[in-house]
Amino acid sequence: MKLSALLIVSNEASNLEACIQSVSWADECVVLEHGSTDNTVEIAGRLDVKFSQTPDWPGFGPQKNRALDAASGDWILSIDADERVTPALAIEIKDALKCANVTGQRVAFEIPRRTQFCGTWIRHCGWTPDHVLRLFKRDEGRFSNDKVHEKVLLTRADTKVVRLKNPLLHYSYPSSDHYWRKLQHYSQEWARQRYARGQTATMTRAALAAVAAFLRSYVFRLGFLDGAMGFAVCTMQAQSAFGKYFELYCLGRKNEK
């Protein structure tokens, strides 16, 4: 039974080749691109991948479902361009799939993710361990239609979710500037999605969300153990929480006017 690795990309020239190399052991790598202005397309063209492009951007969930529809493997490994599958994780995935195929179990797999922030591996703050459902049978899972923070929805109630042990490495925030750019994009998409569902927010809600996010990450999820970088991460998570609800508040105000 074959395994397809899935990536959706846009302006990922700095990440794409290393990411694809980390899943080169898979039977197939599906890369779906949209709107790149760097040389992402050129890099993908010289790599051994199943490459295609889309003229529009429907959001992360719908775009990943497009990539899923283009895959031919029996199993799906969903990975982002800023993530890397280590050799140890690759071996564990192969062994897990071999076992599942032999036993015939209905099973999907969560992978622990380790995230790096500005060159430092963050071990607390709610970032580690961060178990993400990324490995599943193609006919037993779909991505949610969320424009941001999409997730895998298993289509069978009897599918058992098993956690792997080796981490997926996540080089998500190489610099603070990169973090702010991503934060702005996610906040706007999140707010538009919530507003379309009829939700609104107040400034009080935004402020409380920020305070709660900081306390949850820094105190209850032991962010203080990560030192100065832990404080920075938790502060930025508070700003992220405030930013999402502030964007939603602004959409409501704009509509009222």
Can you give a write-up of this model?
This protein has helices at 16-22, 40-45, 60-70, 87-103, 176-196, 203-220, 227-256, and strands at 3-9, 28-33, 50-53, 75-78, 83-85, 107-117, 120-122, 130-137, 141-143, 152-154, 160-163, 168-173. The protein contains 7 helices and 12 strands. By secondary structure, the protein is an alpha/beta fold. It is globular. The strands form 2 sheets. Strands 1, 2, 3, 4, 5, 6, 7, 8, 11 and 12 form a 10-stranded mixed β-sheet that branches. Helix 5 runs parallel beside helix 7 (227-256) and helix 6 runs antiparallel to helix 7.
Instruction: Give the uncertain stretches in residue-range form.
Output: none
Secondary-structure element order, N to C: EHEHEHEEHEEEEEEEHHH
Question: Could you give a short account of the major beta sheet?
Answer: 10 strands, mixed
What overall geometry do the principal axes of the alpha carbons give?
A: globular
Give the rounded overall mean pLDDT.
94
Question: How many strands?
Answer: 12
Structural class: alpha/beta
Alpha-carbon Rg, integer? 19 Å
Brief sketch in words of this structure:
With 257 residues, this protein is α/β, with parallel strands linked by helices. It contains seven helices and twelve strands.
Notable traits:
globular, two-stranded antiparallel sheet, 257 residues, alpha/beta
Fold topology:
Elements lengths: L2 E7 L6 H7 L5 E6 L6 H6 L4 E4 L6 H11 L4 E4 L4 E3 L1 H17 L3 E11 L2 E3 L7 E8 L3 E3 L8 E3 L5 E4 L4 E6 L2 H21 L6 H18 L6 H30 L1
Parallel strand pairs: 1-2, 1-4, 2-3, 6-11, 6-12
Antiparallel strand pairs: 4-8, 5-12, 6-7, 6-8, 9-10
